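User: Um, what's this?
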Amino acid sequence: MQTHPNVDKELFKSKTQIGLKNPTKPFPLNNDIGVLKWRFTSTDETCLPLSINCWPSDNGAGGCDVNIEYELEQEDKELSQVTIVIPLPHNCSPNITECDGDYNYDPRKSCLTWSLALIDASNKSGALEFVAPQASQSDFFPLQVTFSCNQSYANIKCTEVKHVEDDSPVKFSSETVLFTQKYEIV
């Protein structure tokens, strides 16, 4: 976790409170200002909010039958604007046999984009199945995944804001955005 340079780091560490180093100086009002940032990176797949499995198999006709499945691993999260981009061999038009959500084939970029408006506890798993003529199993990697969520990964939230002088409550707003920076299935 990283606090803004003007935030009292010791106060944050000892009491998990955010206050300015100089308490006589006010926070800027009516301005969006980031005071706490954090970043999480891991190679542990159990930490992912969404798991994706891609199963290409040789169909005996020079192509592949491909099955891709997703599953929401953290059911308290709602993932929106989910896209899974699957690379395809050049001039390989896929034949879609099953799709939860929507798909779009882009022949110029040689990719298939699987789109899901929302993945949540009521829609926690789904599949995309297609046949790719003239393809080998390694042609479908890496998959590129993007999504956003209005909850933080660690459920960090601001519960109240108080005046420094008299501890009285102050009206505040906050915005939480979780998004993928780089999420690949290789």
In short: Residues 141 and 186 are 6 Å apart (CA to CA). The helical segments are 9-15. Residues 9-15 form the longest helix (7 residues).
